[in-house]
DNA sequence: GTGAAAAAGCGTAGGGGTTGCACAGTTTCG
DNA sequence: CGAAACTGTGCAACCCCTACGCTTTTTCAC
């Protein structure tokens, strides 16, 4: 009955709570939950870079190497931390369009709270439990459109990519209070070169100072484009 | 006449060819061009991780520290390598829609040739010359839509985000010849847990094996959605 | 119970990587 | 012809991840 899952991607088994059975030897001083929780703590406080086996080990009063009794590699740790940190999706409202908006908003909020999630490298299609909860939620909402499953997957990809992109842009523009100062300095440097270098459209964008305003509008804008596009598809089929 | 650009983001000045003037002392043994070219070489051969000051220095027959005479930090190097590697955009056809498709295709091709570009962390809005060439090209194409500059920027963000996302998905699915084997193993592990864990929609997706087929179709699919969405907007205004 | 097996944790070690500082050599300006 | 400025180098510190071997602890089997 002991399943033999051979070579699974790092973190897959652990994220689903499948631990290697142990029979003899001292009880582990730590638990995976503890380790993962510490990782999240560090991420929240000091960013993605701060999530290191070394630091976690030190914080838990253990040597770095002891970590490798629990986790096969740093990558595995990251996968676990990531899945735990994304948490569960919210309840979505009725109707695919409101649902999509709510889903996107929730992710934007999540990324705003834990910007370091954007630094987690994407290794493959989502396979961990919480990530799949999000996928499941949106997919069931989309099933009301009457589109094929394949189309729904395409829409999902579209939406999740959009959120991620928006969030990562919002982060870098929003953070650092000196952003406006910096931006102005960059503009002073850039504009003459744009003019001389043959970037007419960009020059006018810069001169109209279109680069700065309303990021919230942008979220809504792009999302509206995507949803309208999906609507067109629905009408077509 | 010597401009004093104070604190500019790393790589900005250098990417535009503004070098700190030198008046005395030995001539540099290396040039920035050489260093950047070596970086690209390593990236192409062994991926993003392989781009390190240490390796480049060794390859050029210099100590690691000598690099810091040319580049203020690794981050600066990465910015330069990135801009050089993205190169120039292609000539775009007439009409905003064909232009957008060509632009997207070109980027997909670029990311297929240099997948490691997807690993370059995005630090901020594009400011380096080649990156801005791409922006400029798409922006001028979009100006034919009659939308506002602000709307055009939103569309651009939408498109570039979409490409990036698609490319990063395509990479991880396409690479590694054992991907199908791996995928099957993952499926065997995952499906029972999806059934038990309350993921009905995903379960059916997995059982229908929707997860595997045509990635090329997906590119076209999402792009069509976005362009349709933009079309709706144009009609509305 | 008691001994052996298994597993945990530690120490040591090594291999990468980025960066700072003091030093010696080279070029060019005054 | 100095002296200033800038070069590359060596040394060193500091992170990070990971492998190996050893000691200690626990538990199973007898």
From TrEMBL, chains A, B:
Keywords: DNA-binding, Transcription, Transcription regulation. Signal peptide: none annotated. It holds the Pfam family TetR_N. Residues 52-71 bind DNA. InterPro entries: Homeodomain-like_sf (IPR009057), HTH_TetR (IPR001647), Repressor_TetR_C (IPR004111), Tet_transcr_reg_TetR-rel_C_sf (IPR036271). Residues 29-89 form the HTH tetR-type domain. The keyword Transcription regulation applies. GO terms for biological process: negative regulation of DNA-templated transcription. One of its GO terms (molecular function) is DNA binding. This is TetR family transcriptional regulator. It comes from Kribbella pratensis.
